[in-house]
Amino acid sequence: MQPSIQTVELSGVLLCGGAWLCSLATTLMSTWLTLSTELLPGESYELGLWQSCVVQELGALECRPYDGLLGLPPDIKLARVLMCTALAAGLLALLLAIPGVHTVNSCHEEPRCKRVLKMAGGALALVAGVLGLIPVSYIAHLTVLRFFDDSLPEVVPRWEFGDALFCGWTAGVLHLVAGTLLLTSCLCLQRDTGNAPIPVPLGRARVGPARTRTEYV
């Protein structure tokens, strides 16, 4: 196996692990949206998927979980479902891709098994990337629309982007890159295997008694 293919598949697995950690952090962070007002300059508000927080000027943080599921906005409900699904798909992609790496001692008798595991991991990584980008981009889109809403007075505070949105975009892009690398390594490996020369078995030469040629005149 070429070293370049090993580098590609290892990079895909490492990026898949980093993307999953970023997705987990995005899901748990309470800084999806932030709000600061001129009426209370010493306080700022943070909005997440599971709780809302108030940050005091001196650094004190007070968080409160949401009371119930029925009272949540539809965008928060959608983000919860999609982010949890993206986490499950990303974790499954990582668990399938690790045994498919050629440096891992598994399925050595069946090279096709490694290729199938790696392709499944790459496909799930792409799915996790798309599922992670949808809620982040959707909430960002709604925030922009509400920020530039002319029907609201200028004195009404607007929500702004939080750190969790940027972390979610990073996780989605990393998942897409990881899935692309894993699938590319499978295609390169298949092409390299197809171009490899087929070994021809050589039979043992039988050693027999030397025949003497006699000429009759």
UniProtKB/TrEMBL annotation:
**What are the UniProt keywords, alphabetically?**
Cell junction, Cell membrane, Membrane, Tight junction, Transmembrane, Transmembrane helix
Any one GO molecular function term: structural molecule activity
Q: Where in the cell is it found?
A: Cell junction, Tight junction; Cell membrane
**Gene encoding this chain?**
LOC115005347
User: Which lineage do the record's taxonomy fields give for this organism?
Assistant: Eukaryota, Metazoa, Chordata, Craniata, Vertebrata
Q: Where is the signal peptide?
A: none
Provide the membrane topology annotation: Multi-pass membrane protein
Function of this protein?
Claudins function as major constituents of the tight junction complexes that regulate the permeability of epithelia.
Primary subcellular site in the record, as a coarse category? other
Membrane-crossing ranges are: 12-35, 78-98, 119-141, 161-183
Q: Name one Pfam family in it.
A: PMP22_Claudin
Q: Record's family?
A: Belongs to the claudin family.
The reply to whether Membrane figures as a keyword in the UniProt entry is yes
Quote a single Gene Ontology cellular component term.
Answer: bicellular tight junction
Q: What is this protein called?
A: Claudin
Superkingdom assignment? Eukaryota
Keyword match ATP-binding: no
